[in-house]
């Protein structure tokens, strides 16, 4: 394992715990999708969420209004509400000490990412936002293929840590070893397509450090 690519939302910070209620209780009822399974959109870039909902469900909310809702919610969620998940900063520091290259690979825009990095004083060798790349984001593999090039590793020598179905698919299609991370007991997302499912921060730490030390 030469590099670890971390998703941000639901892996480093508990933002999904805030995004899901916001989406379920405020946004989706406005567009007639109050019963939508949130796994359909979790992990996708918010611009692509809009395109997906228009194409799949023919929603009528204007694009500017939809994106503006996300931008406004993000200001509160990332600037005030999210918390760093247990052990995340220590895990990053330990991997760095062991010479593992670290990348942050997120569907969130760079300005949302920067708020998190600044609030929690996090540093990575590369920060990749799917929002800034040409081409489709997660679940397509391009963002993880780009991340591997950015840090100079072959995807097969990298591990991706993801919490969403779309993120797991993206990293897997890029050829990485994928860890599906579940940080809360009530989380019922199906991560069975991941190479390994970590059910807690401690489990994630053990698995990653084991691979850093030459395990499988």
Would you kindly provide a written description of the structure presented here, covering whatever features stand out?
With 216 residues, the protein is α/β, with parallel strands linked by helices. The chain is built from eight helices and six strands. It has helices at 16-30, 46-57, 63-81, 88-97, 110-120, 142-151, 165-174, 201-212, and strands at residues 3-6, 101-106, 126-129, 158-162, 177-181, 196-198. The chain has a six-stranded parallel beta sheet with strand order 3-2-1-4-5-6, sandwiched between helices. Helix 1 (16-30) runs antiparallel to helix 3, helix 3 runs parallel beside helix 5 and helix 4 (88-97) runs parallel beside helix 8. The longest helix has 19 residues, at 63-81. It is globular and about 50 Å long. The model has no long low-confidence stretch (mean pLDDT 94).
Give a brief rundown of this model:
With 216 residues, the chain is α/β, with parallel strands linked by helices. It has helices at 16-30, 46-57, 63-81, 88-97, 110-120, 142-151, 165-174, 201-212, and strands at 3-6, 101-106, 126-129, 158-162, 177-181, 196-198.
Count of helical regions: 8
Rg value: 17 Å
Largest sheet: 6 strands, parallel
Question: Which strand order spans the largest sheet, edge to edge or round the barrel?
Answer: 3-2-1-4-5-6
What is the number of strand segments?
Answer: 6
General form: globular
The helix content, as a percent range, equals: 40-55%
Mean pLDDT metric: 94
Uncertain stretches: none
Question: In angstroms, what separates the terminal alpha carbons?
Answer: 9 Å
Derived structural class: alpha/beta
Question: What share of residues are in beta strands?
Answer: 5-15%
SSE pattern, N- to C-terminal: EHHHHEHEHEHEEH
